[in-house]
Amino acid sequence: MKRWQVLIVLAGMLLLAGCSSGRALPLSEVYIIPDFGFSIDYPEGWYTDTHSQEPVTWFMENAEDFRARTFQTRKVEGIVITFDHRTLIWLNKEFGLPEDPTLNDLFQVNIDEVTHMVNPTIEEVTLFGVDALRSEFYGKDDMWGISYAGFIDDEAFLLTVKAPSEEALEQFKPTLEAMLESIEPVEE
What we know:
Blueprint: H1 3-20, E1 27-33, E2 38-43, E3 47-50, E4 56-60, H2 63-67, E5 80-87, H3 88-95, H4 103-115, E6 118-127, E7 130-139, E8 143-152, E9 155-163, H5 166-181, E10 184-185
Antiparallel strand pairs: 1-2, 2-10, 3-4, 4-5, 5-9, 6-7, 7-8, 8-9
């Protein structure tokens, strides 16, 4: 084999190795989000919990993040997904969300109060069967993430993915997409 042929084979192997790291993890577990009417699939071995007094649910890749789940301001060690849903009345009272809010109003509350995004990219998507805003961002505490915000009836929801690095977030995207595609309405 000539030298240029060896280089082409090596380049192809590196390309294939890079592609394989971005595969979706198998989703073998199902979690019904309390008081929200939807289920979502997630990877085996992940930690899940819903706060005992607030409508906040966590999906976490590792035990250290799970032990510290109520401390929002720390740097994460692995992938952390937080799902929060609140009544519009509560958001108005606690964060000043207008009475007839738009998705942009909700997004601004997300920036100001939750993620503290820097230069987010924003696009309209559908999640839980409704219009939502999706943003990718870099935030405080060296955090990379993706957030989804929208309204269902008299509630707003915020699903936020946090990652310890930009690379970790990129590698997790296929799994996140599979998780979001798994969302189904359920009877509670």
